[in-house]
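ARCHIVE CARD
SHELF: 3
SLOT: left
DATA:
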Amino acid sequence: MGPTPLSGAMRRAWTVALQALTLMMLVAEATSAETVVVKVAQGQLRANVRHLRGSEKQMLKCSGIPYAEPPVGPNRFKDAVPAAPWEGERSCSSECSECAQPLNPAAGSFSKGSEDCLCLNVYAPFPLLSGVPVMVWIHGGAFVSGDGGEMIYGTDSLVNEDVVVVTLNYRLGALGFLNLGTEEAPGNQGLKDQLMALRWVKNNIAAFGGHPENITIFGESAGSASVHYHTISPESEGLFSAAILESGSALNGWAFKNDTRSNVKLLLKAAKCDPATASEPAAAVACLRAAPARALIAPQTAFKSDEDKQQRALIAFPPSVDGRFLAEEPCALVAKRSGAAVRTMAGFNSAEGIISIALARFKGGMAEFDAGLTEGRGLCLPCEPCPASRSTLRRWAAETRRHFLAGQPLAEDTLQGYVAYSTYNMFFRGILDAVRARAKSSTVPHFFYEFDVQSELNFAKMLFGGQEINGSSHADELGYLFHNKLQPSHDFANDSVEVMTRQRLLKLWTNFAKTGDPTPEVSDLLPVKWEPFSLQDEQYLYIGNTGVEMRQHPLRNDCSFFESLWKDVS
């Protein structure tokens, strides 16, 4: 006798039950396949696993990991302390807030972000391996804006090259760099946040398959200057073995200011505190701590002291001497060969100064920038000769105008020349000085490059409004190293400039991180050997639309021009 047939109602009930059971099994299987628990010093983290963009490979993604306690309330302006342990599992599926910053750094009228922001993100090849080279990214943004999130810094392409990538947040603006010379506001809090993050990486990255003895730090603009600071600060020694500097160094004029007291008075006034307390650190800090963060953040890109206007300073609160992380001025530390054992790759973009177009055009600032050029504001850099007399400086400025702008005023038809001047003066000189110093004092190889590619991935050039200017803008290389949500969504042909340049940069950067040599072997993609920089020939790799080639003496004519000026004071 066979089984009793099920009624229609029972059959439907069993069907629903089986469907529910099947769904539960699928959900459980998907959950176990898409998340994984990673144990770090503070506790357990539940991370997500997903496929890399355009690849069959997978990536473990763990976002929003706290490396320090929130620097809020009585801890505002103080050095950070390590994050406390937690009980049970902590999800790391979401990024934390960006650090408090102006909504628009150029305007400075509103703020966004939070003071509870000291976290990092880890992206690792999956399944997890061991001994994988690590690359730690430090974002730029003039020490006043930016974050390590995936809006701009999507890491899929880097992880696809079999490296572990870490991105991080650090305090910005006055919250990150106010220096009153006291324990309550010691200065360089943002740099020391980065330092704490690097210590976290050193101690925990093995849990993600990373090699704690093969860590490369890299950054762009203010992030690049930060990287350079870590190479010359004894506090960071031993936390990494290599560094990549993209368009910035501690020797750039905008990257250091030894006395910010004039801006402290303006900050106190903006926070409705008594400016007279600028000379009374305890009273100043007490009032500034009581103010809402937005009162400290929003106005600081708009105000400039008379001294800053005279020097054409771009940043109100950059790094400064704090007696610990930065015991002396950068020039002195570089002269003492600090960090000489760290292998370095550094370079600049061919039209960095396109960013100055956006600044000059903002609120009709062209006339102010032209006046600054006449006065020679920002013409002298920290480690280079500078005339003592105002008349000599003005003569230098006039000769500079003749060299770059054919003696003409700054206007729409002389922008190409002004971009060349800004490229050289704002970025190239400080980077070249840093590389020359390393080549002079170090026995390990250092590599120099120029990036000069123009394609649809040059997102920064589009943002800054410099499409009519030849060359690669400040930050344009980021569109090739990272995926960002401002790029075109369509695919490119495999032999396109976009795809070929992306492949070249990814291979050069990750080869350097893996081996210390960006071209350990030549190939169809990289058909020339990148030779280390030497003081005699100043070799550098030129990266253009059609490929790469070795050249010598970057921006030789501009270098010769400024060296001729220096004879006045040498």
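SLOT: right
DATA:
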Amino acid sequence: MKFRRARTLVGYWSEGEFVLEDYLTAKSSDNDEDNATVVDAATMNLLNLFDEWTDVETVLADLPGYDPESVRAAVTALAEAGLLRSPEQAEREDTLISEWAAWSEEARFFHFGTKDAAYIGDDEEHRAAAAAVALAAGPPPPIFKSYPDAPLVRLPRAFLPLRRDFDEVLLARRTHREFTSEPVTLRELATVLHYAFAPMYFVDAREYGTLLMRTSPGGGARHELEPYIGVLDVEGVAPGLYHYNAELHALELIDPAFDRAAVDRLAFGQRMAVDAGFVVFLTAMIKRTTYKYKHPRTLRMIMLDAGHLAQTFDLVTTAVGLGPFQTAAFRDSEVETALGVDGIGETALYLLGAGRPAGPTDGHPIDMPVASTPYPG
């Protein structure tokens, strides 16, 4: 029988040993078994000989100094571990490589490596065990971030009424790419930040302390996402880069020199970001989530949370008469430098923004014709 080295292997050091993980191999959702196999230099050399479809006898010819039976046994063990594929096993792998080719190894490893995670029960026994593990690492991380030495701009709490019919707001929501020169009002900014990012309620999470509740869902109420506001044209607020202190409903000044030129650089020149009244950089405070959730699948949850929060932001901005936008295209590391975060414990995740829309606000496509002909096929 011919074998080929699996095309879905990722290698790394783990606890002093080098391991290979086949991320395409299905994991049981009922347990959390390790999917990695420890390998040594001889094993790596053997796998290298199976770069293309090869039988054991051909490989033996390339290994004259090895005992044939030990090589055959090693090949069998590697096949059982999923590091070598038979032709029958390779069909799914070939389909993956073909259909996901544009996204390279990183995307494939993240998606398939975090599939079929074991579920930890939410009964009292499992909850207590998980809480004990968390508390052993120290107290819960703070639910608010603040810059106590930064100049503070307290925002008004005279929020604009959100009285538009909900269906009207849903239908009117569109991504706006062009804005007028009319500034965003202070009450509009305050209303958007409050309803999108501030706590609405607080809950007693027992061992995990007090947690906040936003208008958007957040996995386990961890609410790891932190907003930073780039003020470009807002009445009553000097341009600059601020952190939104959700506890105080205030802006904490980080960089007074932040301007449209900075946005132009950070957002790759996207006009909607450069011309907006304000932009919002969302970061993820990793410790807030990893304190409770230890499985790498949790990173999926953080990204989903960002989507929830962005949709709420879009709906609130639409409700107050502004035009929202959102983009994942920005210079990650430069954004993190501008924010003064390390990109590890706190990492940039999303770019939102809003301004006074220049185009229609009735929900019809802004810069594309309405479809009026049957879709071909």
